[in-house]
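Example complex used in Figure S2.
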Amino acid sequence: MEKKKLAIITLGCQMNKSDSEWLAGTLTEEYEYTEDKTEADFLVVNTCAVRDKAEHKFFSLLGTLRPLKAANKNLVIGVAGCMAQEHGEMIVQREPLVDIVFGTRALDKAHILLRKFEETGRPQVDTSYGSEYEDFPVRRESALSAWVPIMRGCGNHCSYCIVPSTRGPEQSRPISNLLNEVSALIAQGYREITLLGQNVNSYGVGLGGGVDFPGLLRQMNPIAVDARIRFVTSHPKDLSDSLIGAMTELESVCPYLHLPIQSGSDKILELMKRGYTADRYFDRVDKLRERIPDLSLTSDVIVGFPGESDEDFEATFRAVERANYDNIFLFKYSPRPNTPAENLPGRIPAKLAQERFDRVMTLQKEITAKRLAGWIGRDVEVLVDGPSKRDTEKMCGRTPQNIVVNFTSGEDFTGRLVRVKITKSGQFSLHGDILR
Ligand code: SAH
Ligand code: SF4
Ligand code: F3S
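Predicted assembly (436 residues):
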Protein backbone atom coordinates (compact mmCIF):
# COMPACT_ATOMS: atom_id res chain seq x y z
CA MET A 1 0.00 0.00 0.00
CA GLU A 2 1.29 3.43 -0.87
CA LYS A 3 2.06 5.57 2.14
CA LYS A 4 0.25 8.83 2.77
CA LYS A 5 2.22 12.07 2.77
CA LEU A 6 3.16 14.22 5.75
CA ALA A 7 4.41 17.83 5.69
CA ILE A 8 5.44 19.87 8.73
CA ILE A 9 5.90 23.63 8.99
CA THR A 10 8.08 24.44 11.98
CA LEU A 11 8.03 27.82 13.72
CA GLY A 12 9.97 28.74 16.86
CA CYS A 13 13.12 27.40 18.43
CA GLN A 14 15.45 24.45 17.98
CA MET A 15 13.41 22.41 20.42
CA ASN A 16 10.52 22.72 17.98
CA LYS A 17 12.73 21.69 15.07
CA SER A 18 13.79 18.66 17.04
CA ASP A 19 10.17 17.88 17.97
CA SER A 20 9.18 18.05 14.30
CA GLU A 21 11.86 15.50 13.42
CA TRP A 22 10.59 13.34 16.23
CA LEU A 23 6.97 13.66 15.09
CA ALA A 24 7.90 12.70 11.52
CA GLY A 25 9.80 9.74 13.00
CA THR A 26 6.82 8.49 15.00
CA LEU A 27 4.65 8.57 11.87
CA THR A 28 7.05 6.89 9.41
CA GLU A 29 5.09 3.66 9.26
CA GLU A 30 2.07 5.34 7.75
CA TYR A 31 3.45 8.55 6.31
CA GLU A 32 6.21 9.50 3.95
CA TYR A 33 7.65 12.95 4.54
CA THR A 34 7.32 15.57 1.80
CA GLU A 35 8.62 19.11 1.44
CA ASP A 36 5.76 19.87 -0.95
CA LYS A 37 2.79 21.05 1.12
CA THR A 38 0.41 20.78 -1.84
CA GLU A 39 0.73 16.99 -1.93
CA ALA A 40 0.37 16.45 1.84
CA ASP A 41 -2.41 14.31 3.34
CA PHE A 42 -1.46 15.45 6.84
CA LEU A 43 -0.05 18.94 7.31
CA VAL A 44 1.20 19.94 10.74
CA VAL A 45 2.12 23.42 11.90
CA ASN A 46 4.47 23.22 14.88
CA THR A 47 3.90 26.54 16.62
CA CYS A 48 5.68 28.97 18.94
CA ALA A 49 4.07 31.19 21.59
CA VAL A 50 7.08 32.96 23.04
CA ARG A 51 6.11 36.41 21.79
CA ASP A 52 3.00 38.02 20.40
CA LYS A 53 4.62 38.16 16.96
CA ALA A 54 5.12 34.40 16.89
CA GLU A 55 1.41 33.90 17.50
CA HIS A 56 0.48 36.36 14.74
CA LYS A 57 2.73 34.47 12.40
CA PHE A 58 0.77 31.30 13.03
CA PHE A 59 -2.61 32.92 12.37
CA SER A 60 -1.44 34.50 9.15
CA LEU A 61 0.12 31.20 8.09
CA LEU A 62 -3.22 29.46 8.64
CA GLY A 63 -4.75 31.85 6.13
CA THR A 64 -2.33 30.64 3.49
CA LEU A 65 -3.34 27.01 4.14
CA ARG A 66 -6.99 27.65 3.27
CA PRO A 67 -6.50 27.13 -0.48
CA LEU A 68 -4.73 23.80 0.18
CA LYS A 69 -7.73 22.52 2.08
CA ALA A 70 -10.05 23.79 -0.62
CA ALA A 71 -8.04 21.89 -3.23
CA ASN A 72 -7.88 18.68 -1.20
CA LYS A 73 -10.94 17.91 0.93
CA ASN A 74 -9.11 14.98 2.57
CA LEU A 75 -6.25 17.09 3.84
CA VAL A 76 -5.95 16.83 7.63
CA ILE A 77 -4.50 19.92 9.32
CA GLY A 78 -2.77 19.54 12.66
CA VAL A 79 -1.47 22.14 15.08
CA ALA A 80 1.32 21.15 17.45
CA GLY A 81 3.78 22.93 19.72
CA CYS A 82 3.55 25.73 22.23
CA MET A 83 0.43 27.49 20.91
CA ALA A 84 -1.35 24.14 20.77
CA GLN A 85 -0.43 23.58 24.40
CA GLU A 86 -1.41 27.10 25.40
CA HIS A 87 -4.73 27.42 23.56
CA GLY A 88 -5.85 23.79 23.05
CA GLU A 89 -9.59 23.63 22.35
CA MET A 90 -9.77 27.35 21.52
CA ILE A 91 -7.85 26.73 18.28
CA VAL A 92 -10.41 24.31 16.81
CA GLN A 93 -13.25 26.56 17.94
CA ARG A 94 -11.77 29.62 16.34
CA GLU A 95 -10.35 27.90 13.23
CA PRO A 96 -12.61 25.35 11.54
CA LEU A 97 -9.66 24.65 9.23
CA VAL A 98 -7.85 22.84 12.03
CA ASP A 99 -8.67 19.15 12.61
CA ILE A 100 -6.19 18.08 15.24
CA VAL A 101 -4.47 19.93 18.08
CA PHE A 102 -1.77 18.19 20.04
CA GLY A 103 0.38 19.73 22.74
CA THR A 104 4.10 19.62 23.36
CA ARG A 105 3.89 16.38 25.30
CA ALA A 106 1.33 14.63 23.14
CA LEU A 107 3.38 14.43 19.94
CA ASP A 108 3.47 10.65 20.15
CA LYS A 109 -0.33 10.60 20.17
CA ALA A 110 -0.63 12.01 16.64
CA HIS A 111 -1.52 8.65 15.09
CA ILE A 112 -4.23 8.01 17.71
CA LEU A 113 -5.75 11.46 17.16
CA LEU A 114 -5.63 10.96 13.39
CA ARG A 115 -7.51 7.70 13.69
CA LYS A 116 -10.13 9.22 16.01
CA PHE A 117 -10.59 12.13 13.65
CA GLU A 118 -11.02 9.80 10.68
CA GLU A 119 -13.55 7.69 12.59
CA THR A 120 -15.64 10.53 13.98
CA GLY A 121 -15.03 13.43 11.61
CA ARG A 122 -14.78 15.61 14.70
CA PRO A 123 -11.75 17.74 15.64
CA GLN A 124 -9.45 16.15 18.22
CA VAL A 125 -7.52 17.93 20.95
CA ASP A 126 -4.90 16.48 23.31
CA THR A 127 -2.86 18.70 25.58
CA SER A 128 -2.18 16.11 28.26
CA TYR A 129 1.24 15.65 29.81
CA GLY A 130 1.04 11.88 29.76
CA SER A 131 3.81 10.52 27.63
CA GLU A 132 7.21 9.48 28.91
CA TYR A 133 10.41 9.98 27.02
CA GLU A 134 10.97 7.05 24.71
CA ASP A 135 13.56 6.03 22.21
CA PHE A 136 12.14 6.65 18.82
CA PRO A 137 13.09 6.58 15.16
CA VAL A 138 13.84 10.24 14.45
CA ARG A 139 13.52 11.49 10.89
CA ARG A 140 16.43 13.94 10.77
CA GLU A 141 16.70 16.86 8.37
CA SER A 142 20.48 16.76 8.17
CA ALA A 143 22.88 13.84 7.70
CA LEU A 144 25.66 15.81 9.37
CA SER A 145 24.24 17.73 12.34
CA ALA A 146 21.80 16.24 14.82
CA TRP A 147 19.67 17.77 17.58
CA VAL A 148 19.58 15.68 20.71
CA PRO A 149 17.11 16.89 23.36
CA ILE A 150 18.55 16.01 26.76
CA MET A 151 15.60 17.31 28.73
CA ARG A 152 12.20 18.81 28.24
CA GLY A 153 10.14 21.42 29.99
CA CYS A 154 11.56 24.19 32.13
CA GLY A 155 12.01 24.35 35.88
CA ASN A 156 12.55 28.10 36.01
CA HIS A 157 9.99 30.82 36.38
CA CYS A 158 11.33 33.84 34.55
CA SER A 159 8.48 36.25 35.05
CA TYR A 160 8.06 37.15 31.35
CA CYS A 161 8.17 33.66 29.94
CA ILE A 162 5.42 31.36 28.72
CA VAL A 163 7.69 28.36 28.12
CA PRO A 164 7.32 26.75 31.57
CA SER A 165 3.57 26.59 30.99
CA THR A 166 3.74 25.46 27.35
CA ARG A 167 6.47 22.87 27.92
CA GLY A 168 5.63 21.73 31.40
CA PRO A 169 7.91 20.82 34.28
CA GLU A 170 11.54 20.00 33.68
CA GLN A 171 12.40 16.38 33.05
CA SER A 172 15.82 14.99 32.08
CA ARG A 173 16.31 12.03 29.75
CA PRO A 174 18.22 9.10 31.22
CA ILE A 175 21.93 9.29 30.48
CA SER A 176 22.11 5.78 28.98
CA ASN A 177 19.52 6.74 26.33
CA LEU A 178 21.54 9.83 25.44
CA LEU A 179 24.85 8.01 25.18
CA ASN A 180 23.24 5.30 23.03
CA GLU A 181 21.62 7.85 20.79
CA VAL A 182 24.88 9.74 20.31
CA SER A 183 26.90 6.59 19.57
CA ALA A 184 24.32 5.55 16.98
CA LEU A 185 24.53 9.01 15.40
CA ILE A 186 28.32 8.88 15.24
CA ALA A 187 28.14 5.42 13.66
CA GLN A 188 25.80 6.86 11.02
CA GLY A 189 28.34 9.56 10.20
CA TYR A 190 27.00 12.56 12.14
CA ARG A 191 29.73 15.09 12.87
CA GLU A 192 27.89 17.58 15.03
CA ILE A 193 25.63 16.96 18.01
CA THR A 194 23.65 19.82 19.52
CA LEU A 195 22.28 19.02 22.96
CA LEU A 196 19.01 20.79 23.62
CA GLY A 197 17.28 21.94 26.77
CA GLN A 198 15.73 25.16 28.09
CA ASN A 199 18.43 25.09 30.76
CA VAL A 200 20.98 22.36 30.03
CA ASN A 201 22.93 23.31 33.17
CA SER A 202 20.28 21.71 35.33
CA TYR A 203 20.47 18.41 33.44
CA GLY A 204 20.20 15.41 35.75
CA VAL A 205 18.01 16.98 38.43
CA GLY A 206 15.45 14.36 39.38
CA LEU A 207 17.22 11.49 37.62
CA GLY A 208 18.73 10.30 40.86
CA GLY A 209 21.86 8.93 39.20
CA GLY A 210 24.18 11.60 40.55
CA VAL A 211 24.99 12.82 37.05
CA ASP A 212 25.00 16.48 36.16
CA PHE A 213 25.56 18.32 32.88
CA PRO A 214 29.36 18.49 33.03
CA GLY A 215 29.27 14.77 33.91
CA LEU A 216 27.14 14.07 30.85
CA LEU A 217 29.63 15.95 28.66
CA ARG A 218 32.51 13.98 30.16
CA GLN A 219 30.82 10.69 29.34
CA MET A 220 29.81 11.84 25.86
CA ASN A 221 33.23 13.20 24.90
CA PRO A 222 34.93 9.83 24.18
CA ILE A 223 31.88 8.65 22.21
CA ALA A 224 31.76 11.72 19.98
CA VAL A 225 34.79 10.65 17.94
CA ASP A 226 35.76 13.29 15.34
CA ALA A 227 32.55 15.14 16.11
CA ARG A 228 31.59 18.43 17.65
CA ILE A 229 29.34 18.77 20.66
CA ARG A 230 27.37 21.97 21.25
CA PHE A 231 24.57 22.78 23.63
CA VAL A 232 21.81 25.35 24.12
CA THR A 233 20.72 26.99 26.36
CA SER A 234 22.83 27.67 29.44
CA HIS A 235 21.26 29.61 32.27
CA PRO A 236 23.81 31.99 33.87
CA LYS A 237 22.62 31.24 37.41
CA ASP A 238 23.63 27.58 37.01
CA LEU A 239 26.87 28.02 35.08
CA SER A 240 29.29 26.15 37.33
CA ASP A 241 33.08 26.10 37.44
CA SER A 242 32.74 22.43 36.72
CA LEU A 243 31.06 23.22 33.37
CA ILE A 244 33.75 25.75 32.50
CA GLY A 245 36.29 23.03 33.35
CA ALA A 246 34.56 20.50 31.08
CA MET A 247 34.40 23.03 28.22
CA THR A 248 38.10 23.75 28.61
CA GLU A 249 39.25 20.15 28.81
CA LEU A 250 36.99 18.15 26.52
CA GLU A 251 38.18 17.97 22.97
CA SER A 252 34.80 17.49 21.31
CA VAL A 253 33.01 20.29 23.18
CA CYS A 254 32.99 23.46 21.05
CA PRO A 255 34.21 26.83 22.34
CA TYR A 256 30.72 28.20 21.88
CA LEU A 257 28.27 29.33 24.51
CA HIS A 258 24.84 30.90 24.35
CA LEU A 259 24.45 32.61 27.71
CA PRO A 260 21.38 34.87 27.77
CA ILE A 261 21.84 37.93 29.97
CA GLN A 262 18.34 39.39 29.25
CA SER A 263 19.15 42.67 31.02
CA GLY A 264 22.15 44.49 32.48
CA SER A 265 20.16 46.08 35.32
CA ASP A 266 19.94 44.29 38.66
CA LYS A 267 16.55 45.84 39.30
CA ILE A 268 15.17 44.42 36.04
CA LEU A 269 16.91 41.05 36.51
CA GLU A 270 15.18 40.81 39.88
CA LEU A 271 11.80 41.68 38.33
CA MET A 272 12.49 39.06 35.67
CA LYS A 273 13.24 36.50 38.41
CA ARG A 274 16.46 35.48 36.69
CA GLY A 275 18.33 34.58 39.84
CA TYR A 276 21.60 36.43 39.16
CA THR A 277 22.99 39.95 39.18
CA ALA A 278 24.98 41.63 36.42
CA ASP A 279 28.14 41.22 38.56
CA ARG A 280 27.61 37.51 38.91
CA TYR A 281 26.99 37.25 35.15
CA PHE A 282 30.26 39.02 34.38
CA ASP A 283 32.13 36.95 36.94
CA ARG A 284 31.15 33.93 34.81
CA VAL A 285 31.98 35.65 31.52
CA ASP A 286 35.40 36.80 32.74
CA LYS A 287 36.24 33.31 33.88
CA LEU A 288 35.08 31.80 30.57
CA ARG A 289 37.11 34.30 28.55
CA GLU A 290 40.19 33.68 30.66
CA ARG A 291 39.97 29.90 30.32
CA ILE A 292 38.70 29.69 26.70
CA PRO A 293 40.36 32.53 24.75
CA ASP A 294 38.66 31.78 21.40
CA LEU A 295 35.23 31.41 22.95
CA SER A 296 32.29 32.58 20.92
CA LEU A 297 29.70 34.04 23.25
CA THR A 298 26.12 34.86 22.24
CA SER A 299 23.15 36.09 24.23
CA ASP A 300 19.46 36.96 24.38
CA VAL A 301 18.51 40.50 25.38
CA ILE A 302 15.08 41.93 26.15
CA VAL A 303 14.45 45.68 26.03
CA GLY A 304 11.33 47.49 27.18
CA PHE A 305 10.60 45.24 30.17
CA PRO A 306 8.00 46.84 32.49
CA GLY A 307 9.65 49.41 34.75
CA GLU A 308 12.80 49.70 32.61
CA SER A 309 14.03 53.26 33.27
CA ASP A 310 16.56 55.10 31.12
CA GLU A 311 19.18 54.09 33.68
CA ASP A 312 18.18 50.43 33.53
CA PHE A 313 18.36 50.54 29.78
CA GLU A 314 21.79 52.19 29.86
CA ALA A 315 22.95 49.33 32.10
CA THR A 316 21.82 46.86 29.45
CA PHE A 317 23.51 48.87 26.72
CA ARG A 318 26.79 48.94 28.64
CA ALA A 319 26.50 45.23 29.45
CA VAL A 320 26.18 44.38 25.76
CA GLU A 321 29.19 46.57 25.07
CA ARG A 322 31.24 44.96 27.82
CA ALA A 323 30.27 41.35 27.03
CA ASN A 324 31.60 41.80 23.49
CA TYR A 325 29.21 39.15 22.18
CA ASP A 326 29.69 37.52 18.81
CA ASN A 327 26.00 38.00 18.33
CA ILE A 328 22.76 38.45 20.21
CA PHE A 329 19.08 37.75 19.74
CA LEU A 330 17.37 40.98 20.64
CA PHE A 331 13.70 41.21 21.65
CA LYS A 332 11.20 43.80 22.70
CA TYR A 333 9.29 42.64 25.74
CA SER A 334 5.98 41.07 24.77
CA PRO A 335 3.38 40.51 27.51
CA ARG A 336 2.37 36.84 27.67
CA PRO A 337 -0.91 35.58 29.12
CA ASN A 338 -0.75 34.06 32.61
CA THR A 339 2.82 35.13 33.29
CA PRO A 340 3.69 37.21 36.38
CA ALA A 341 5.21 40.05 34.35
CA GLU A 342 1.95 40.54 32.48
CA ASN A 343 0.61 42.51 35.45
CA LEU A 344 3.71 44.50 36.34
CA PRO A 345 3.32 48.28 36.38
CA GLY A 346 5.38 50.58 34.19
CA ARG A 347 4.71 49.30 30.69
CA ILE A 348 7.14 50.89 28.25
CA PRO A 349 5.56 52.74 25.31
CA ALA A 350 6.13 50.98 21.98
CA LYS A 351 8.03 53.92 20.51
CA LEU A 352 10.52 54.03 23.38
CA ALA A 353 10.99 50.25 23.30
CA GLN A 354 11.71 50.52 19.58
CA GLU A 355 14.30 53.28 20.16
CA ARG A 356 16.05 51.14 22.74
CA PHE A 357 15.88 48.14 20.45
CA ASP A 358 17.44 50.12 17.58
CA ARG A 359 20.26 51.43 19.76
CA VAL A 360 21.27 47.98 20.98
CA MET A 361 20.92 46.57 17.47
CA THR A 362 23.25 49.20 16.02
CA LEU A 363 25.76 48.60 18.80
CA GLN A 364 25.73 44.83 18.34
CA LYS A 365 26.13 45.10 14.56
CA GLU A 366 29.34 47.05 15.12
CA ILE A 367 30.62 44.57 17.68
CA THR A 368 29.77 41.57 15.48
CA ALA A 369 31.55 43.14 12.50
CA LYS A 370 34.63 43.85 14.63
CA ARG A 371 34.73 40.38 16.07
CA LEU A 372 34.41 38.82 12.63
CA ALA A 373 37.20 41.04 11.28
CA GLY A 374 39.39 39.71 14.11
CA TRP A 375 39.51 36.34 12.33
CA ILE A 376 41.17 37.71 9.17
CA GLY A 377 44.54 36.08 8.58
CA ARG A 378 43.81 33.15 10.89
CA ASP A 379 43.73 29.50 9.95
CA VAL A 380 40.51 27.85 11.19
CA GLU A 381 38.93 24.40 11.22
CA VAL A 382 35.71 24.23 9.19
CA LEU A 383 33.09 21.49 9.18
CA VAL A 384 31.72 21.63 5.65
CA ASP A 385 27.92 21.78 5.35
CA GLY A 386 27.85 21.80 1.53
CA PRO A 387 28.01 24.17 -1.42
CA SER A 388 27.39 27.80 -0.54
CA LYS A 389 23.82 28.90 -1.24
CA ARG A 390 24.82 32.33 -2.51
CA ASP A 391 27.79 31.31 -4.61
CA THR A 392 27.79 27.74 -5.89
CA GLU A 393 31.47 28.03 -6.82
CA LYS A 394 32.18 28.08 -3.09
CA MET A 395 31.71 25.69 -0.18
CA CYS A 396 30.13 26.68 3.10
CA GLY A 397 30.80 25.42 6.60
CA ARG A 398 31.21 26.50 10.20
CA THR A 399 34.06 26.92 12.65
CA PRO A 400 33.95 25.37 16.15
CA GLN A 401 32.64 28.78 17.24
CA ASN A 402 29.71 28.24 14.84
CA ILE A 403 30.82 31.09 12.58
CA VAL A 404 29.82 30.59 8.95
CA VAL A 405 32.73 30.44 6.49
CA ASN A 406 32.41 30.51 2.70
CA PHE A 407 35.54 29.34 0.94
CA THR A 408 36.99 28.42 -2.43
CA SER A 409 38.01 24.78 -2.64
CA GLY A 410 37.64 23.39 -6.16
CA GLU A 411 36.32 20.13 -4.73
CA ASP A 412 33.25 18.98 -2.80
CA PHE A 413 34.28 18.55 0.83
CA THR A 414 30.75 18.13 2.24
CA GLY A 415 30.79 16.48 5.66
CA ARG A 416 34.55 16.83 6.11
CA LEU A 417 36.74 18.88 8.40
CA VAL A 418 39.08 21.17 6.47
CA ARG A 419 41.44 24.02 7.29
CA VAL A 420 40.65 27.40 5.82
CA LYS A 421 42.66 30.60 5.79
CA ILE A 422 40.38 33.56 6.48
CA THR A 423 40.87 36.41 4.00
CA LYS A 424 37.78 38.56 4.43
CA SER A 425 34.93 39.21 6.82
CA GLY A 426 31.36 40.22 6.06
CA GLN A 427 28.43 41.30 8.21
CA PHE A 428 27.46 37.79 9.29
CA SER A 429 30.15 35.47 7.97
CA LEU A 430 33.75 34.93 6.97
CA HIS A 431 35.41 34.20 3.63
CA GLY A 432 38.60 32.31 2.94
CA ASP A 433 40.59 29.80 0.93
CA ILE A 434 41.12 26.15 1.70
CA LEU A 435 44.62 25.20 2.88
CA ARG A 436 46.14 22.14 1.24
N1 SAH B 1 15.25 28.70 27.82
C1 SAH B 1 15.94 29.55 26.99
C2 SAH B 1 15.15 30.18 25.85
C3 SAH B 1 13.80 30.68 26.13
S1 SAH B 1 12.95 31.56 24.88
C4 SAH B 1 16.60 30.55 27.87
O1 SAH B 1 16.27 30.70 29.00
O2 SAH B 1 17.49 31.20 27.41
C5 SAH B 1 14.21 32.48 24.07
C6 SAH B 1 14.29 33.91 24.45
O3 SAH B 1 13.11 34.58 24.17
C7 SAH B 1 14.56 34.20 25.89
O4 SAH B 1 15.88 34.02 26.25
C8 SAH B 1 14.12 35.63 26.01
O5 SAH B 1 15.17 36.51 25.69
C9 SAH B 1 13.06 35.75 24.94
N2 SAH B 1 11.73 35.89 25.52
C10 SAH B 1 11.05 34.96 26.25
N3 SAH B 1 9.85 35.46 26.64
C11 SAH B 1 9.77 36.71 26.14
C12 SAH B 1 8.77 37.75 26.19
N4 SAH B 1 7.64 37.58 26.86
N5 SAH B 1 9.04 38.91 25.54
C13 SAH B 1 10.19 39.10 24.88
N6 SAH B 1 11.15 38.17 24.79
C14 SAH B 1 10.96 36.99 25.42
FE1 SF4 C 1 11.78 30.83 29.85
FE2 SF4 C 1 13.48 31.32 31.80
FE3 SF4 C 1 12.78 28.80 31.28
FE4 SF4 C 1 14.31 30.13 29.58
S1 SF4 C 1 14.86 29.58 31.69
S2 SF4 C 1 12.52 28.89 29.07
S3 SF4 C 1 13.55 32.21 29.70
S4 SF4 C 1 11.45 30.42 32.07
FE1 F3S D 1 10.40 27.25 21.62
FE2 F3S D 1 8.61 29.09 21.09
FE3 F3S D 1 7.96 27.04 22.54
S1 F3S D 1 10.71 29.45 21.57
S2 F3S D 1 9.82 26.45 23.58
S3 F3S D 1 8.60 27.00 20.40
S4 F3S D 1 7.30 29.12 22.87
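The domain at 287-373 is CATH 3.30.750.200 (Transcription Regulator spoIIAA). The chain has a mean pLDDT of 95.
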